[in-house]
Amino acid sequence: MTLLSVKRTRTLGPPSRALHYLPVSALVLDLLVMVGVFALAILGRNRLDVFDNTSDVTATLQVAGPLMLLGWLVLIAALGGYRNDVFGAGTDEYKRVFNASLMTAGLVGVASYLTKFQLSRGFFLLAFGIGVPALLVGRFVLRQAMHRARRQGYLQHRVLIAGSDVHVDEIAAVLRREPWLGYEVVGALLPAGQTRDQTGSGLPVVGACEDVTAVVRDSDADIIFFAGGALTSAAQLRQVAWDLEKDEVQVVVAPSVSDISSERVRVRPVGGLPLMHIDPPRSTDASSIGKRTFDVVGSLALIIAFTPLFLFAAARIKLYDRGPVLFRQTRIGKGGEEFTCLKYRTMVVNADELIAQLQVDVGQSALLFKMKDDPRITKPGKWIRRYSVDELPQLFNVLRGDMSLVGPRPQVAREVALYKGPMSRRLRVRPGMTGLWQVSGRSELSVEEAIRLDLYYVDNWSLVQDVSILGRTVGAVFGSRGAY
C-alpha cells in the first residue's frame, strides 16, 4: 500500500530546487539595497544644506562603510533573517530585519563614540533613516514576487498531512485555499486501522501514521503536517522530530483551529508543554469609539474628494431615463436594526419586481444573489457598477452611523431570514461599504466562502486590518475583479 502510493506521488515531480535559493536571493537583495542607500546617504550628506558640508566624508567611509554594511548583513543573518521558514508569510521576517537594523545602528553609534571615530552624523542619519524602510520594502517586494510565483505553481513545498481522515481534509482545504503559501499537498497518512486509497476529499493516502518517517523520506516531502488523530503521545512526535533531524524536513503540528488571526493566538510553554491561548472574538472591538472615529473622519474626507464624481454619476443616471438618481432600500444593520441604504440607481425602475423570476431562471439562492449580464442593469449602470461608483452614496450612511467603511455587506430582510447557525454573527457589527470578501474576489466567490470571510472579519477585527482592506479595495475596484 505504502510503496504504491509513494510511487504515485512521485509523478508530481521533484521538490522545487529554487526554494534553496530564497535565502541567497534575499541576501543579494539586501546587499543591493544597502549599497544604494549608502550611495544616497553620501550624496545627501554632501548636497543637503541641513548638514555640515565643510569636510569630505568619502575617505572615512572607505573604511567605515564596508564594515557597517558587513556588520548589518551579519546581524540580519544572526537574528534569522535568512532562514528558509521566515519567507512567504507572517511578520517574523520583517521583525527580524527591523530588529537587526536597530541593533546595527546602536552598535555603530556606540563603537564610534568609544573609539572616537569621526563618523559623519549626516551620513549616519541618512543611512539608517532611509536604509531601514528600504530593506523592509525590498523584503515586501520579494514576498510579493514569491506569492505571484507560487500562484503559478512555482516555489512549491511538497507537503504530507498525517491524521484522521476528517482532520487531514480540513488542513488540506485550508492549504489549497491559500495557494500563495506554496504548499503542494501530495498525500496523506492515516492511522493504521483507517488506511484506504484516498481521503474523503480525494487526497491520495500514501501510508500509515506509524510509518511516517519512512514515508516522508520516500516521498521527498519538505514538510510533514501532524493533524488531529495522527499521534498517540508526545513521545511519538519527539521521536519523529529526532528521526527527521538530518533530512531537512520541517515538522508542523496543525491544531484543529482555523479562521483565527495570529493576533488572537499566544503560545505559552508550561513545563515543556506549549499551550495555545486563544483570545476572545473581537466583535465588540469592531464597534469601538476608535473605529467610529475612523469611519467619520474617513467618510468626510472621501465625500469631499469624490464630489465631482458624485455629480457626474448623478447626471448620467438622470439624463438616461429621467428616473430617480438614488436607489433606497431597507437593509438590516447591526443588531438586526433596519436602515435605509443609499446607492446610485443602476437598474431599471421596476428591478425589484423582476428579481424573483431571475432567481428561478438561474437557479440561485436569494442569499447574496448576484448574476452576470443582469438584464435589469441600465447602460450607465454598467460602468457605475463596474467601478463600484454606485456604492459612493453609502458614505452618507457611514457618516450617519448606519454603516462602517469596512465590514460585512448589508443584506435585506429576506436574505437575513436565510441565516443558519453562526451566520447571524455578521449582525454583531455595523455593515460595511467594503470587506474581506469584496477584496478577495467579490462576486466570483461562492456564498460559503463569502460568509466565511465575513465571519473571520467579525471575530478578528483590528484597525490595521481595516486600513489594509481599504487599500486592497482600491486595487479590486480599478481591476474590476469580480464586479457585476
Automatic annotation (TrEMBL):
The keyword RNA-binding does not apply. It is found in: Membrane. Keywords: Membrane, Transferase, Transmembrane, Transmembrane helix. Pfam families: Bac_transf, CoA_binding_3. Residues 291-478 form the Bacterial sugar transferase domain. The keyword Phosphoprotein does not apply. GO terms for molecular function: transferase activity. The chain crosses the membrane at residues 21-43, 63-82, 94-115, 121-142, 296-315. It comes from the Bacteria. It is a multi-pass membrane protein. This is Sugar transferase. It comes from Nocardioides endophyticus.
